[in-house]
Amino acid sequence: GGLGALYAASPFAAGEVPCFADCLTEEAVAWVVRRNDVCRALLTARPSLVAFRERFAAVQSDAAFKAKQAAARAVDDAV
Length: 79
Hints:
5 helices; mainly alpha
C-alpha cells in the first residue's frame, strides 16, 4: 500500500519529474507482475500504481529501455 499512497500523492516519487527511484520501482513492479498472479492482482487493485506505470511508460527514454529489456528476455527470461 505504501507505493500506491506515494504515487497517489505525486506523479513520480520526487514530484513532477521521473527520478532513479521511479526506474527502480517500475522495474521491480514489472518483474513481479510478470511472474506472480497474486502480485499482478495487487497491482491492478491499486489504480495509482497503474497510473504511475502509464505515466512512466510515456517517458520516451523508457520506451527504448523497455525494447532493450524485451530483447534480453527473449534470450534469458530471468531479466
